[in-house]
Amino acid sequence: MADELIDGTDREILALLREDARRTLSDIASRVTLSTAAVKRRVDRLRETGVITGFTVQVDHAKLGWGIEAFTELRFFGTTNVDEIVQTTTRMPEAQAVFTIAGDPDALVWLRVRDVQHLQRTVDELRRSHRITSTKTLIVLDSWTRGQDWPGSPAEPPRS
């Protein structure tokens, strides 16, 4: 869906749902001054066009015993197919995401582990891949995420 097809009201609805995905349609309607039926049509359209891909829960992973995050840079031997990079990393439950990137390194893996020893075992497992020539791991001390705002959100009007 092209950005031009999402109007300011759609952006407000998206911001409200990002803030609380359990928010009722009637609550959203009162905040954006539309009827509940109109909000439902807009949310349905945003889902059908793939703008809204799901509704999620945010989890405190540390309270579940998975309190350490790290990023591991991967360098692969020669020219490696992106599918091979994804297969090497995503078979591991510790891998939260894998990013293939331009330049050096070839890929960046976001890991979530229980403790430093678990991280060591996970990185060792990655290193056992015959295609990986080297790794570099960075442990996350603290993090910040953009949260509710994103390029084009109501808080950031589109650039001309």
From TrEMBL:
**Does the keyword Transcription belong to this entry?**
yes
Quote the PROSITE patterns the UniProt record gives. Answer: HTH_ASNC_2
Q: CDD domains of this UniProt entry?
A: HTH_ARSR
**Top-level taxon of origin:** Bacteria
InterPro entries attached to this UniProt entry: ArsR-like_HTH, AsnC-type_HTH_dom, Dimeric_a/b-barrel, Tscrpt_reg_AsnC-like, Tscrpt_reg_AsnC/Lrp_C, WH-like_DNA-bd_sf, WH_DNA-bd_sf
The record's keywords, sorted A to Z, are:
DNA-binding, Transcription, Transcription regulation
Domain HTH asnC-type: where?
6-67
Q: Which residues form a coiled coil?
A: none
Q: PANTHER family under this entry?
A: LEUCINE-RESPONSIVE REGULATORY PROTEIN, TRANSCRIPTIONAL REGULATORY PROTEIN (PROBABLY ASNC-FAMILY)-RELATED
What name is this protein filed under? Lrp/AsnC family transcriptional regulator
Give the organism the record lists.
Amycolatopsis thermalba
Which lineage?
Answer: Bacteria, Bacillati, Actinomycetota, Actinomycetes, Pseudonocardiales
